[in-house]
Amino acid sequence: MLSRADFEARDAADPLASYRQRFALPENVTYLDGNSLGPLPRHVPDVVADVVQREWGIDLIRSWNDNGWWEMTQRVGERIARLIGAPTGSVVAGDTTTVALYKAVSAARRLRPDRHVILTDSGNFPTDLYVLSSVAEATGAALVTVPPEEVADRIGPDVAVLALTHVDYRTGRRHDMEALTTAAHAHGALVVWDLCHSAGAMPLDVANADLAVGCGYKYLNGGPGAPAFLYVHPDHQNAFVNPISGWWGHADPFAMEPHFRPAPGVRRVQVGTQPIIALAALEAALDAFDGVDMAALRHKSELLVSGFIQLVDERLSDFEVVTPRRAEDRGSHVTLAHEEATAVMAALVERGVIGDVRPPNLLRFGLAPLYQRHTDVWDAVEAIGGVMENKAWKRVATRHGPVT
Ligand SMILES: *Cc1c(COP(=O)(O)O)cnc(C)c1O
User: Fold this and answer.
1) Which of 17, 93, 194, 196 has the fewest CB atoms within 10 Å around its CB?
2) pLDDT tens for each residue of 36-65
3) What residues flank ligand 1, with Cβ below 6 Å?
4) Of the candidates 287, 234, 274, which has an alpha carbon nearest to the alpha carbon of residue 83?
């Protein structure tokens, strides 16, 4: 049986322990929802205040040149590229994941015009499924959706694009990115990866993938609605046809030409003017990763997740662990099933242990290795045990806001 002392010892031996100080996490909160909204890095408010007061307030429109606003999408893209194993000049930040995914899958589909299937899995995030369906409709393709474990077998000569999310937002199940990318390429298909639940949580190597997208506000901690990112393999960049030809993707935007000429390279994935204040927050947030050894990050993530699962096995017999048991099959959150998931989570949030729920019966606990402590794992499982033992979940008022 594990004890709190075991988790204290893990914290004492944690090579990333000091990174927590880079975040402004409130006292008395055990925050296990960074897979949905990363916490505030401590220095972001000052950076954003400077962008607003000095750059916008005083330098005004000169800031596009003088304060580097114009290059910001590419500058932030370069920093994300380092976290996902992408080469220089292949990633831009901007738009939202939903929009970035539409652009990526649409462009991939056009690169394989003689094939008619867009393949995905049924566990994919709803917005991804909706977007894939829209692209299929717009480009005369068929969307084929199979269970996650059947993806590899379904890849064949009719598949134009394989579009998958690396880590399942519900269960934490992780696809084998390298194996599936290789299999798709062996059949002549292109692959688009959604890295929303893995970018910033583990080392990634997208260099062989064709395209990838991901989110700025989960493990990258860029703030609510932070810009997303889009990766295009260098070999595809000059063939990438953006479904929305906008002036930010033009070869010479300020020539104000009446006809669209795509920019060379990855800049052509852009559409229109981007939210500079939000980009500034994301750029500053990425400083929190400075100096991080990504292998150590993954090692810590595995220890956090395995510690959580072991404690649930030992102490919470009412809960089923939905997350895969093998470390290589999962991401950085743990999902438990319980029929009273909503009430149990509401009781936990009342006690300052913040995770979230996904219908119909799943409780999610994000274990972000950059700032989480091992004792947070212990405290969370203690709190779940307490809520069950004193039946606090039966008395809690479940709030009915629009967001779960
Ligand atoms: C969080 C998430 C999204 C969110 O898309 P937005 O456009 O930022 O709302 C999309 N896909 C996946 C897999 C996600 O986890």
Assistant:
1) 17
2) 999 999 999 999 999 999 999 999 999 999
3) 96-98, 125, 127-128, 165, 169, 194, 196-197, 215, 228
4) 287
Atom of ligand 1 nearest to the CA of 165: 13
pLDDT per position as a tens digit, 5-41: 999 999 999 999 999 999 999 999 999 999 999 999 9
Q: For 44-125, where are the alpha helices, taking DSSP H only?
A: 44-50, 63-66, 72-84, 97-111
Positions marked catalytic = 125, 194, 217-218, 364
Distance from chain centroid for Cα 286: 14
Amino acid at 72: M
Starting at the earlier edge strand, list the strands of the sheet with 320-321: 320-321, 333-337, 362-366, 356-358
Residue recorded with tokens 């000049």: 89
Q: pTM, whole model, 2 decimals?
A: 0.98
Q: Is the distance from CB of 167 to CB of 174 less than 8 angstroms?
A: yes
Ligand 1 centroid from CA 97, angstroms: 5
Query: Quick one: tokens of 39?
Result: 């916490």
